[in-house]
Design a protein that fits this description.
heterodimer; A: mainly beta; five-stranded mixed sheet; four-stranded antiparallel sheet; 5% helix; 44% strand; globular; B: mainly beta; 13-stranded antiparallel sheet; ten-stranded antiparallel beta barrel; 4 helices; 55% strand; elongated
Chain lengths: 420, 401
């Protein structure tokens, strides 16, 4: 970058910073936490505002960059600390870093390194809840650690406890905290596929359903005043709703193979998608005489999420149809636009914008609008295989591939901080 | 259909208005012949393409989100070879004009094998030198114009292509007459599925217009080809299309055929050689992975028929020679190595040594050497001191008939 560009970039940044609303949460503010996979609501969307709407040529400012090791585990953020998982030569570990510097605070080995042709290391993302962080290894060992120092509070080998076995590509789902429960689809023998543990002790509270472990992570939603946990089951293809008691609320048969998370389309619809020529479905949940039932609103082969989950902004679903970024109408599945070139990328949304990360580390900013793909910035942030979706917290964006992890300031750009 | 067409025309008109271009608002109705003619002109013209007898195309291929170099070789009429890397494994797919073969590390085969069904049909289709739109009549396939339709938000001519039992759909850009997309069938891990290919970044290479970026999606897969160099009429060695023999067996493939055999034997190291004539037949079995020789001769007055095999153990990196005859009814198994074109194998470690009265153990050794296109030689040796010294008992000289 030339000196002139740096100066110009700095001016633009200053101008943009002056226009920022003062309500934007700062990094470290608990309101800015991204404590689990796909954000506060597990839907890929952040409530944050005050982000740059157009990036300078050099991109947003680089806060720091460091080695992290193998793994597809995404990054959780709580109280100015980052939590992820990585693998070194023989072990998978939970890792805690300072959010503002990337400096390591602690690292706790959890189990053997998972070796696989698509890439080694952990797949699941840590979940932070209060003073605990829950980590699920690729072989299905669930560990509760103290966020302060990484020391172990309890651990349960889900495979041993419930009779399941790790799926071929490794355990990839992220546990779900619901009240006092930690719920995970670890797979298991009859009636033990979905397990709810006491998050404080690891004690089994209930189990439900049968079948193998899934790759997709569950979500908690409230429909017609009923809080329920939704699981899109990889092995059986069912979309399953469980009440906090573990009781089956409803079940909708679909096609096996999903890896991406289900997406809640308020007030009462669930979007599910799977690759391998499957497509997507939108179902509606309604209660008649207090008894919930489901119906298919539409299904389509036009959006086939592989491992990257879709998100919803203002009635439109944005996601990767295999390797094509698309916008479709949530109401009827109609495609509004398609943009290629990101490979099997991932995306999150914030402040009316899409933050898109290609599978080879290209980071882009585009409008979240059905009117067309309108890009407002692009840079090469990482260079390796990048299958981990971005994390946004307090205006800072955290990215990783199988080698590096970095932090960017999405509220400022160009100038001295940029080292990309 | 009419509504869809109207929307397409409206979109085209709007695009023209927005860009201020002076192009017509809507494409005129067109026959499939006219459309293909425009397409061929847009691709550089039929004459220019017909003057091309071979293509060497190189660039970057991305699969499983990892880029690697690729090389595509094409030679008329339909020789085809694609070298690429997927998940750090070599994937080489070839059509030699008769049959497809591959090295498919993705399926765990890092050695050449015939392409099994149903993959073989896909390879045959990919081997066709030009697209079915460039040479529909030559390829014996049929192209029909379905109409002007919306394709991913833009108007495009939709064409149905029938290639024997297979059907494909192609979309052409009305403005450029170049291809936008192709929807075909492919096979992934033995499962047939739809494959969508998207063409972009058209550039001219010596007058040949071709897409320099092709995005492919099928099942859970995504492959991207980005072309950096095209060499027309490249000199391509015919061997690049030929299926190599199985590992270790290359130097022995020329043994196949009918041979005149001169057999010289002697009962002891100081005894004179006795010569006789025979005929040998050697055939390649198992795609060249096993050499099988059959011959008959008279051994010290006894008529003997002998069957000999030569193979290579890829895992043990060892040549294995077996010989079985209807005189001793013993199978001799010899193992060894090849160096400087000379295969030496013995039964010292195979447990098939003979026992001679009173209780001597006689090991045997075979030396196959001087392999030329029309001749080679075999020496048979024996040892009574556990391989310390060897005596030549028989000399076989092969001359091609």
């Amino acid at each position: 970058m030339t000196r002139r560009m740096r100066i110009t970039g700095g001016f633009v940044v200053a101008l943009l910073m002056a226009c920022l609303p003062s309500v934007a949460p700062a990094a470290g503010d608990a309101n800015a936490d991204w404590p689990q996979y796909r954000g506060p609501q597990r839907n890929g969307s952040s409530p944050e505002t005050g982000l740059l709407k157009r990036w300078p040529e050099a991109g947003p400012s680089l806060l720091w960059r460091r080695k992290i090791g193998d793994g597809f585990s995404s990054i959780a953020v709580a109280r100015n600390r980052l939590f992820t998982m990585s693998a070194d030569s023989d072990k998978e570990s939970a890792v805690c870093l300072k959010a503002d510097t990337g400096e390591e605070i602690w690292k706790t080995p959890l189990g053997p390194r998972f070796v696989e042709e698509f890439g080694d290391g952990p797949r699941s993302t840590p979940v932070v809840d209060g003073d605990l962080v829950f980590n699920l290894t690729s072989y299905g060992a669930l560990h509760a650690l103290r966020t302060s120092d990484g020391s172990k509070v309890w651990d349960v080998d889900l495979m041993q406890a419930f009779g399941g076995h790790p799926p071929g590509r490794g355990v990839g789902s992220t546990p779900l905290v619901h009240g006092d429960l930690l719920i995970v689809e670890g797979g298991g023998t009859e009636g033990k596929a979905i397990q709810a543990l006491d998050k404080r002790t690891g004690k089994t509270m209930w189990t439900s359903q049968s079948g193998p472990a899934g790759y997709a992570s569950g979500i908690t939603v409230t429909i017609d005043g009923v809080q329920q946990d939704i699981f899109l089951r990889t092995g059986t293809g069912e979309i399953v709703s469980l009440l906090p008691s573990g009781e089956l609320n409803w079940k909708h048969a679909w096609i096996p193979g999903a890896i991406a998370m289900p997406l809640f389309v308020p007030p009462n619809r669930i979007f599910a998608s799977a690759a391998a020529d499957v497509g997507s479905i939108l179902i509606e949940v309604s209660a008649k005489d207090g008894k919930p039932s489901t119906r298919e609103v539409w299904s389509s082969r036009g959006m086939k999420n592989h491992f990257s989950s879709s998100l919803l902004v203002d009635g439109y679903i944005y996601g990767f149809d295999n390797a094509s970024l698309k916008c479709i109408a949530a109401s009827n599945g109609e495609m509004k636009w398609v943009q290629r070139g990101f490979g099997k990328g991932s995306l999150i949304a914030a402040d009316g914008m899409l933050i898109i990360l290609s599978d080879q580390g290209v980071l882009a900013l585009a409008e979240a609008t059905p009117d067309g793909y309108r890009e407002h910035g692009r840079l090469q942030a990482l260079t390796g295989k990048t299958w981990t979706s971005p994390t946004l917290s307090g205006g800072h964006l955290y990215l990783r591939d199988q080698d590096e992890i970095l932090g960017l300031d999405l509220r400022s750009g160009g100038a001295a901080g940029s080292g990309l | 259909m009419k509504r869809s067409l109207d929307r397409c025309l409206a979109a085209l008109g709007a695009a023209v208005l927005l860009t201020g271009a002076a192009a017509p608002v809507a494409p005129a109705p067109m026959s499939v012949g006219e459309l293909l003619k425009r397409h061929i002109i847009a691709r550089g013209g039929a004459d220019r393409w017909r003057a091309v007898t071979s293509l060497e195309i190189t660039g970057t291929h991305t699969s499983f989100s990892t880029p690697h170099p690729f090389t595509l070789l094409r030679s008329r009429p339909n020789l085809y070879r694609m070298d690429r890397t997927m998940l750090r494994q070599p994937v080489i797919e070839v059509f030699d004009g008769q049959k497809p073969w591959w090295i498919n590390g993705l399926l765990g085969n890092t050695w050449p094998l015939p392409v099994p069904p149903p993959f073989d049909e896909v390879t045959r289709r990919e081997a066709v030198f030009e697209t079915p739109l460039m040479a529909p009549a030559d390829g014996g396939h049929k192209v029909e114009l379905v109409g002007l339709e919306d394709f991913e938000g833009k108007p495009a001519y939709k064409l149905k292509v029938t290639l024997g039992a297979a059907e494909e759909t192609w979309y052409l850009d009305p403005a450029t007459s170049l291809e936008v997309a192709r929807i075909s069938k492919t096979v992934d891990f033995f499962e047939e599925m739809e494959k969508r290919s998207y063409f972009s970044d058209f550039r001219s290479e010596a007058g040949l217009v071709m897409p320099h970026r092709i995005d492919m999606e099928y099942g859970t897969r995504n492959e991207v080809f980005e072309i950096t160099r095209v060499i027309a009429n490249a000199a391509i060695e015919p061997d690049r299309f030929r299926m190599p023999p199985p590992e270790g067996m290359g130097p022995l493939q020329s043994l196949a055929g009918q041979w005149d055999l001169k057999i010289e034997t002697r009962p002891g190291p100081r005894a004179p050689w006795v010569a006789e004539k025979a005929a040998s037949s050697i055939v390649l079995r198992l795609d060249g992975g096993l050499i099988e020789e059959h011959y008959s001769h008279v051994d010290q007055g006894f008529p003997v028929e002998l069957l000999r095999t030569i193979s290579y153990d890829r895992f043990g990196k060892t040549y294995r020679v077996t010989s079985t005859d209807n005189f001793s009814f013993q199978q001799n198994v010899m193992e060894g190595t090849m160096a400087d074109g000379r295969l030496t194998a013995s039964n010292e470690k195979t447990g098939t040594a003979q026992t001679a009265p009173p209780d001597r153990t006689v090991h045997s050794r075979i030396i196959l050497a001087d392999i030329l296109p029309d001749s080679f030689r075999i020496d048979l040796e024996s040892s009574t001191d556990a391989g310390k010294t060897w005596n030549t008992d028989a000399r076989y000289t092969y001359t091609r008939r």
